[in-house]
Specification:
By secondary structure, this protein is α/β, with parallel strands linked by helices. About 30% of the residues lie in helices and about 20% in strands. The protein starts with about 25 loop residues before the first strand and ends in a 32-residue tail after the last helix.
Length: about 400
Amino acid sequence: MDGTDDSRREPPDRLRPPACHGARVPMTDGSGPDVAEPDDADRCDYCRLPIPTDPVTLEREETTYEFCTEACRAAMTERERVCTEYHGFRRVRTGVEGLDRFLPQGLPRNSFVLLSNDEGARDDALRAELVWRALERDEPATVVTFTEPPVSVVESFLSLDWNVLPYLESDQLHVVDCFTYRMDDPDRERFFERMDEWNRHVYGITESVTQTVRDPSDVSELHNKLDNCLEALGMSDRGVVVVDSLTEFGSLVQPVRAYNFVKDVRADVCKGRFVPVFAGATFTGEEVRFPHDLGYAVDGIVDMQVNDGIVEDTLIKRIRIRKMNGVLAIPEWVAYEFTAGQGLVTFDPIAEMDDAEGRGESEGTDGRTEGDGETGGRSGTGERGESAVETER
């Protein structure tokens, strides 16, 4: 069918989908270009997938609708509405520039992504940005923390100029606390008493949306508390879950239980609820051990590296997408830093050096700007994190 047949008119109002139906699936965060699908007339009028065989038709109000299966025809007849998304392969943008740039087709919603990082790579800031971008899309989020108390988790957002307090108060952001089990009741009371006025204020806002796990080594309790958060937030085909450290979790339980927990969360949360999970894992030099040998069991791997071989005497943070099932992923290293209010910002350190050297040539040999009696210019590395130059590809 070439799409010019008069019998293939727009469905009646009660069946008419949004303008994106059959052509483009809009990204949920509204940033950047949409993920485009082929604009093909030979698509099922319910699920919007291509029709590879003879279509199943339905006549209604002098309009002919075509479906790929009788099940799709029956579904539209019963529900009197159409699907506006490719639900079996729904993709979204994370909102993080350094990730979305190398995922031109978006991120599958049913993904479990391992954030494999070196010490000092600031994976905590990346997890915070993933949550913040979800909140900006008006989606809920859950943070599972093994290495920090809930107050510190909130402070990590505030340090990046992302005020999550309204989202905590509106019950859009929850925390699964796997840290404070380390303190018994007297220690927990002293912990609260030692807080200053501001931290007590943050604690009061966070307390009502925190699920405290009494024993994180009890995998069943941990899974139940996580499920309670997802249920309370209505997280199905929406939202995001971040886990701060599978490395810490692996130190609490036997390896077999750790592997099974990851597989169970991937099955229940990612595949069952279509909610992506991003889990941090700090590289300790033992790549053959949990969680760095999980490559076969996860859907995506993002590497965060601290490299000392790009610029002499300087540690440069780099990120790349090593693996992402089901979509095109460009496995290219790119340098990055985090800037308050902006999040992860990519830049080209070599271009930065060349730019600094070019400015240096216009300055006097004594470090003074020509024609200026004041000391001028910046050093070659002094503001590398502030001026972001996009990596050339």
